[in-house]
Amino acid sequence: MSKLKYTHLLLGLLLGVTAALAAPQYDLIICANVNKGYVIGSKIVTTNGLFRLTETREWKHFGANDTTLTGAAVDPRDPSVIYTSALNGLWIPLKGSPTGRMANSWDLTEGRDVALDPNAPDTIYLAHTEGVAVSTDKGLTLEHRNHGLPARGRFAETIEVDRTKAGRVFVGCEKGVFLTDDAGLNWRQVLPTEAQVNDIQQSALDADFWMAVTDEQGAWASHDGGLTWMQVTGLPSEHALYNIAFDPTNAKRIVVGSWTYGVQTSEDGGKTWTTRNEGLPENPRAWRVGVNPNTGRLYASVFQETLYHSDDFGRTWQMDTLADGSLINRFVSVPRINP
Amino acid sequence: MKPKTIFIGILISAVCSALSLHAQPAFEGPPPSREVLQSADQRNAAYAARINEVLDWRIGLAKPETLDMATIAMLLVRNQDIELCNQRVIEMMKEPGTGPFWMFPSTIVAFAGRDKLSPEAQASIRNAWRTERQLRGDTENHWVMYHTSMYLMSELYPNEPAVTWSDGKSSEENLAETRGWLIDWMNLTTTIGQGEYDPTHYIGEYAIPMAMLATWAKDPEMKQRGHIMLDWIFAELANQTLEGVLRGPNSRTDDTSVTERWNSLASFFSWILFGNTPPTAGYGGWGNYFAVLAPNYQVPEVIYRIATDRQQDIYQHDHARTRRIWRYSDEHMPPIYKTQYLRHDYAVGSHQGRLSDPIQGHVWDVTWREDDPRGKFPTMFSVHAYSSGKALQMFFATYPEPMPKGIYREGKPSYDAPDKVVGTSPYEKVFQDHDTVVALYDIPAGTRFEQVNGFFSKDLKHVTEDKSGWIFAQGGNAYLAYRSLTPYHWEPHLNYRQIPSDAGYAFERDDTGSKILVSNSLKNGTIVQAASADEFADFAAFQVAIKALPLKFKLEPLPTVSMTTLRGKEITFTYGEAPVVDGVAVDYSKWKLFEGTHLNAELGSRKLTITHGRLQRVLDFNTLTIADTVTPGK
Question: N or C: which end of chain A has fewer CB within 10 A?
Answer without folding.
Answer: C
